[in-house]
Amino acid sequence: LEAVFEHEKDLMAYALEKIRALDRVVLYGNTPARCGVISFNLENAHPYDVGMVLDKYGIAVRTGMHCAEPLMAKLGVSGTIRASFALYNTREEIDKLLEGLEKALAILDL
Amino acid sequence: MKPEILEKTGGARSIRDLEDEIVLAFNELQDWMDKYAFVIRMGRSLKAMDPDLKTQANAIAGCQSKVWIACEVQDGKMSFYAESDALIVKGLIALLLHVLDQQPPEVIVEAKLDFIERIGLHSNLSPSRANGLGSIIKQIKHLAERALETSSSGDYPGSYVQ
C-alpha cells in the first residue's frame, strides 16, 4: 500500500509540473495534499471540446460540472477537465495527455 | 482539395442533395483531426443567434455544453437560429442546419439524416454524450412538428415557434 501511495504521489507531482508548464492552462485548487485528480481548463476552450479531442486521441478524462454546479458557478466556469490517476497509470501516459492537450490547442485554434 | 466550409447556395436543394454535399466534403478529409477542424470551421460560420433568443425555453437541457435552438416559419419554410458554447457541438449544429435550414417542416419531420452515419459522426449520437447530436435532432424535429400543428390550426405562418 505504501508503494501505491508513493507511485500516485509521484504521478501527481509529475502531472502537476507538466500541466503547469503548459501555456494557457488554468489549474483549479492548490492544496498541497492533492491526490488522485487534477481539475483544469485550457484558456478560452470549452472543456467538452478539449475532452472530445482527447477522446479521439485515446485519452479518457472527465469533463463537465462533475455534479458540482454550485462550485462551477463560484469558479465562473461552465465546467472543467478532470484527469485522474491511479496505481495503474504511468508517467508515459501523462506525457501522452500533454501531447493530447497540445493537439487540442491546435485543432481548436485558440 | 480540402474543403474550407460549405456555403449555403440559396437555391431550393433537397435534403438528400445537401447531405451528399457534406459526405463528399468529409471524403476529402483524411483523418479525424481534419474532420474535427472542418466541423469547427463550420461552427464558426454559423450565423449569430440573437441573444434575446437564448432563453431557458430555447435551451436544450444537459450539463456538458449549452445549446439553444429557435426557429421561425416563413412561406412554409423553417429558419433555424442555434448556438452552443462548445465549438464542436456548434459545428455539428452547423452541419445539421446546412441540411435542414429553409426546408419545409413536413420534410424535416421525415428526414432520416443518415449523413451523420455516412461521415462517421454517429458516435456523437450516443446517449452518454449529453447534448450530442441526438438531442439536437430531436429538438429540431419537435420544432418542425410544432410548426405543422400550428399550421393546421390556422396560425401559420408563425413567428418564433419556441
Terminal CA distance of chain A = 42 Å
Query: Measured on Cα atoms, how large is the radius of gyration of chain B?
Result: 15 Å
Q: Please list the strands of the largest sheet of chain B in the order they lie side by side.
A: 1-2-3
Low-confidence stretches of chain B: none
Going across the biggest sheet of chain A, name each strand in turn: 1-2-4-3
Largest sheet of chain B: 3 strands, antiparallel
**Rounded average pLDDT of chain A:** 92
Our estimate of the beta-strand percent of chain A is 15-25%
Segments of chain A where pLDDT lies below 50 for 5+ residues? none
Helix percent band of chain A: 40-55%
Residue share in β-strands of chain B: 5-15%
Q: Could you give the distance between the termini of chain B?
A: 40 Å
Give the overall silhouette of chain B: globular
The oligomeric state of the chains shown is: heterodimer
Structure annotation, total helices of chain A: 4
Main β-sheet description of chain A: 4 strands, antiparallel
Key phrases:
heterodimer; A: 110 residues; alpha+beta; 4 helices; 4 strands; B: 162 residues; 3-stranded antiparallel sheet; 6 helices; 43% helix
How would you portray this structure in words?
- The complex is a heterodimer of chains A (110) and B (162).
- Chain A has 4 helices and 4 strands.
- By secondary structure, chain A is an alpha+beta fold.
- A 4-stranded antiparallel beta sheet of chain A has the order 1-2-4-3, with helices on one face.
- In chain A, strand 1 (25-28) and strand 2 form a beta hairpin.
- Chain A is globular.
- In chain A, 29% of the residues are buried.
- The model of chain A has no long low-confidence stretch (mean pLDDT 92).
- By secondary structure, chain B is of the alpha+beta class.
- Chain B is built from 6 helices and 3 strands, in the order H-H-E-E-E-H-H-H-H.
- Chain B has helices at residues 15-27, 32-44, 87-100, 105-110, 115-118, 133-152, and strands at residues 59-60, 67-74, 77-84.
- Chain B has a 3-stranded antiparallel beta sheet.
- The N and C termini of chain B lie far apart (40 Å).
- The mean pLDDT of chain B is 83.
- The chains are: A alpha+beta (110), B alpha+beta (162).
- Chain A binds chain B through residues 46, 48-49, 52-53, 56, 63-65, 69, 78-79, 103, 107-109, and chain B through 32-33, 36-37, 40, 63-66, 85-89, 130.
